[in-house]
Fold each of these.
Amino acid sequence: MRAAVRIAIKDLKRSIRDRSAIALTVVAPLALAFILSSVLGNADESSFSVDYAVADLDGGHIARTFVDETLGGMEEEGFADISEVDSAERAERMIDDDDIGAAFVIPEGFSDAVEGGRATEILVLKSPDARISAEIARSIARGFANELNAVSLSIATVMSGTDGEPPPEDLQQAAQSTTPPARVAEDVAGSREFDTKTFFAAGMAVFFLFFTAQFGAVSLLTERKEGTLARLLAAPLSTRSIIGGKALYGYVLGAGSMAILIIASTLLMDASWGDPAGVALLVAVGVFAAMGIQSVVTTLAKTDEQASGYGSIVGVTLGLLGGTFFPLSQAPGLLQNLSYATPHAWLMRGFGDLSGGAGTIADTLPSLGALLAIGVVTAGAALLRSRNLVVR
Amino acid sequence: MDSEATNGRVLECSGLRKSYGDLSAVDDVGFYIELGECYGLLGPNGAGKTTTISMVCGLLKRDAGEVTVAGKPLDISSTDAKGAIGYVPQEVAIYPDLTARENLSFFGRLYGMGGKDLASRTDEVLEVTGLADRASDRTDKYSGGMKRRLNIGIALLHRPRLLVLDEPTVGVDPQSRNAILASVEHLSEEGMAVLYTTHYMEEAERLCDRVGIIDEGQIRAEGTRRELVALLGQKDNVTLTGTGDLTAAVRAIEALDEVERATTRENEIHLIVAGASSRLPDILASAASAGASITGVDVVEPDLEAVFLRLTGKALRD
């Protein structure tokens, strides 16, 4: 055991001095996660926000419904920052000053006009420099108008089917049976839902873990090439110590690089990984599974270059299939099912369960079980073949 | 009491066999090395030298045979016997991104060394190998000769009973080669048992107390240089340079006792003679009486190269 630890420490020292190893284990995944979340992060609901103003010149209950329910709901969900102003001129000035992307002006008499079935409008003031915000504002206003029209139509239908004044309860039922005015709301996030930053941080950490996890097994072949494996074999230690040292080195390197990525992405990218104990457990089992798979692959190679090539092919293929670059929910059904043959998918699912602080270790049990099973099977196979890798 | 204590043998091996499919790399090889003795395995590339010492050092699974080092049986998993061996691989086997001191320290710890003993022994080895002033430099900054010295230094660090060197001078410049040979001589004189493989006849002659001539996986002959040369009947090669009637001189010399063969080519007469140094006056007198004027004499005693040629029918460098 002591010899294994010494071999592992020696290899870790060599890795720390090897800039390319640091680049692959820490710098590349962190940089890619940052770039991908920056480029694709705008699609994330939680990170998208617009600034609007609303001038309610009417003050009636329908106008207040728009301001308080529709716009207020958006603000509550964090999609919009709404400023209520007292005039259309004030809203225009805010647009000119680039303080907001668009403004809604509800004219005086709006609520009465709607109730009276007369034509009226919500004016949308748009900034030419914020087209997306302006388009969204127009859609919100149009959606609200459509809902109002639907309510009016239902009531009109009720009235046309009765003689004289309809009973008040019929009117109320007609109004309630229509869809309430459109309200933009975030789809409630269930388990396995990441925010964009955490998704890419986890995706890149898992993707690159499968490259790091190969280091231990490949270093055996490198030692053979450098001639130092013969020295290790000539020394008074068992082959178990040599293999154990390599496994320990690979494990510490994999777990260490994951830990650095998790901490760095939390601090630098505001990624939200969730329960630390659950994350640590997933990392522990995930590294084991990754090492098992890559060790089996390494035992099929004759040289360290060949092993690295095989490992890269396996890492990239399983990484893409396992949903480290895109959420599996966006993949076709067949691909989603196939993905669970990869440890990547289970690891991502586990991290997704914990992400945002909503999940607990209990939620990750399926992932932990699957990863453990993958690790036990593949590491066992690798162990059986590894003696041939060392002694011939 | 272990067997080393009773017979003074640091290494004993017998019946070593190793095959790769139908190819027999080593076939029934056995020899022993005593304390302070340098034993050479002399043979051309592919003769089975490296396979033999790989089995002796426990690097390679043997198909058959026994190895005992310092009285302890050795196999791949035995640690006691391996601790008595210092192994110098043919190629430089050091970690290029570690310093010389870190390399020595790592391997020293694998041999159970530690603390002050490891520190002082590391300093000693760095001093002996001439690397003390570069001890903290990464070894990928070293010259080829420095790497070679460290390669040997690592094997000496734990004070082994048996030093095994696998063709340590291949690809080495003459200066470094001479330094390596001097080191091995010194270690042997200090009482270390040495197993030295080479395909350079002159190295085996210079260093080795006994030599095993190995070819096609088998030891063809074994003994001291004198014993091996005796296999040729102790005949010397003599070359006479001169003028006059060399053909008549050849006829006259051939008639002498102990002269096995005499031939002439251009201005030289080539002889194979038993005990040339004692027969030379008669040879020169016969040549003179036959009308030849001899201006130069060159006597070459049989060497291991000739022995190898006689035993295997091929040259060492074939």
Amino acid sequence: MWPGRTWIGASAGLMGLFVLQACGGSSAARDEQAWRLAEKAYQENGDGSAYRLWAALDATGPKGRQAHRRLAVADQHYRHAIDLYRTNQPGVREAMQEGLALGPIDPAHYLTLARLCAERGIGFRAVDFYRKYLNQQPAQAAQARLELASLAGGKDPFPPLFAESSRPLEAPRPSPIWAMALLGPLLAVALVLRVRNRRRGLRRMLADRPEWHQTVAYHLGCLRHEFLKHRVGPLGEPLRAIARAKASAGEHQFLRDRLAQGTPLRLAWRAQLHALERSMGIAWKLDSVDPLFRRARAAMERLGRQRWPIRPPDAKRLLAAHAALLAFDRQLSELVVGLVRCSVDEALLREVVESTRSEWATGKVPLDEIRIGPVPPGVEVDVLRTDLRIVLKNVVRNAVQAVAAAPTPRRLALDVQVEPEPTGEECVVFRVRDTSPGGLDAGGSKGNDVEHGLGIVNTALRRYDGSLQVVPDSDGYAKAVLVRFFHSQRGPANEDAA
Amino acid sequence: MKRLLVIEDGNEYAEFARLFLTGHFHILVAQRAADALACLRSDRVDVLLIDLRFDRAVEADLVGDVAATAKRLFAGDRERALRHLQDQQGVLILAELRAAGFGQRAVFIHEFLPRRMENLRRLYGPVHALPTFDCAALLRALEEED
């Protein structure tokens, strides 16, 4: 059996770690570099193959120590998810996502997951988990292979990240030998390319990688603003004038300045796409594999390939390309809207409090009062629900632990306010109030201490453009922790783009 | 002839205005809030055409406090705060102009969403926006009376 691609990736990463150790250098630099390798493997493969790299990190260095702590906490979430699944309880997906937000899964869990999926008749997922398990060359490989061989639908509760491997292949149907010989290889290549390209399309990748949404939304915003709005947008007027044979010399010059002067159109386009591709860590060109971008590139190339002076028939052809790029702009707008959006309501706050209170340490703190709400109607933030829960749970956990040492009555309140910004935007403020006089050190959120959870909070705040502030409070509460995120922009376009 | 003040960090809006709006407006140009204020104090200006993003503007020219914005909105991330101020600079400049008592109609070439547009009108009075550089629509937006 050939080793899996991700296994090869992990092996290369491990080799990298050994090389790093052998090459010397300062331990801090080695620690940092090893961590980067391990983190990159997780971001790129997103599955158990990265676990080896994380587990191999030196636990005496700060990064390694942090990674091992994250692995331990993530493992609790993964085990919790498996228990929930085993006992047919809801929340499997959420628990898995909480684990994924922290670190890779221990590949040993794949065998358990595969067997549970097989029991429930989710064949393709079971196959997927068996393959991921076998890719790690485990001790029980022979037994797992036997089980895999015996497998031949059900509701799938697992997040997309666990669905990377392909579904089981159907048995090929018999066909004439000559046709197989002639067409088989060609069809196979075409099929492979088609499947590969579909998997490499932006929409598909975004569906599998919600953690990319924020960054991609930003880069698509830049592409729309810099290229489509400023460079391409103003071309319509002069092109229409030329098409009507009524253009002035100034309008010809205006077109020439935008199409033939400065950075060539093709390079400006590529620079924007390159920034997007780099932000996602992909090695292929989106405008080669994604039909949406491929069509836009063709239109852009038509605009960039003209003879001067532009004559009316040419202007009509260029106007069609211009219209295609404006349509592309609208499609990007639709793509971006709703990538990462979470409705905020009292049910979410209650879920956060109940989930935090169900933890052993937090649950045993007696509270005299917990107030939840109010939440204004129609509040939405561009934050993954799982990440928002993680942030709020950490803040609530800290508040409960803080009031544990405070005199009674111990009170806690969680509500939401919407604050207008001078830019016309709005901020959603989650307010966690408590009666503990001891202030939470807001500076602590700059660290990466998983024990206190503030490292995770800080990472999420930076990922989603949020902030955390501690302020003195009134109405019998000693302090309030304010978590701010921008309110989602409703409607047909994304604000980043303009 | 009416006088149009174009406020942008580059020259695309001004070029567009000179080419397509010169027959309708006398064009004035400012590249930062201080220049716009000086122009409004020294010249008669009837309407404002404002770019929203000032990507090329340096921190010293921007309206807004990068450090305070970083702390309040971006978990201390100064770089992100700077980008935010650049991205929203047109509106922040308009806020400065309104604070200084200049209430001229302001037009943006920008696809503001309805909720934000409502907020901008509530905050800054006569504000209009167009999604693209459409000459006829822009002329209507600039020439309409509030």
Amino acid sequence: MSMELAPIVRLGSNLLISLQGDLDDATVLRLEDQITRELVRTQARGMLIDVCGLAVVDSFIARVLARITSMVKLLGAEAVVVGIQPAVAITLVELGVNMKHVHTALNPGRGMALLTRLQESPPDGSR
Amino acid sequence: MALGDDGASGCAIGGEADLLRVRQLLRERSRQLGLGLVDQTKVITAGSELARNILKYGGGKGRMDVETLSKERRQGLRAVFADQGPGIADIAQAMEDGYSSGGSPGLGLPGARRLVDDFLIDSIVGKGTTVTIVKWTR
């Protein structure tokens, strides 16, 4: 399916996607497809996923977000999830969703700075 | 979606699109009741988990009914999720973090319980499962 669910904006060598509204499961899975396809097409080095427009992130959406960041990594880029609403953060922790492996930042600006740092550090993590 | 005289409302759960209706209805009702934003988010998320449980494990069909409660000066939002699915043989096991009879990590039931004030699960093998959650105003 080639329908664009959320606009993906290019920022230098990175991409930014802003997720909005109430997402059903099928939409979340199509976003996964859209993000990975755009990353390969544009050969971007990083992906910022802005979730400040999501009032609810349940375990399914959280799991797919974690999966997307793993996929982005396999494609040789880095992903950072930004803009998690405070109420959503509290809820995800109590729900017990494991987001430990997901890079996060408060807002797109800090996310961009984190992406730059991640891209500069060697892949084995030693500096 | 029907609104009765007692303020009860509900919706059928039979497909993924109904997850959005469940969240929408819980959002409206928890706002009306005056729950804070964090508590609204918790009850909507718990509802989303329980509705998905019905789709995945509860035979794929069921319903949610919502009503408001009043106890002393506090008000509560009660949501009942019922299915006529296969039921749960070992409820204690199903309430354990990480247990799942399906493919995904089992956060649904224990996770939902942590997000609400009252949680009641009733299941009969071969007949179905009913989960009741309540969130009270502070």
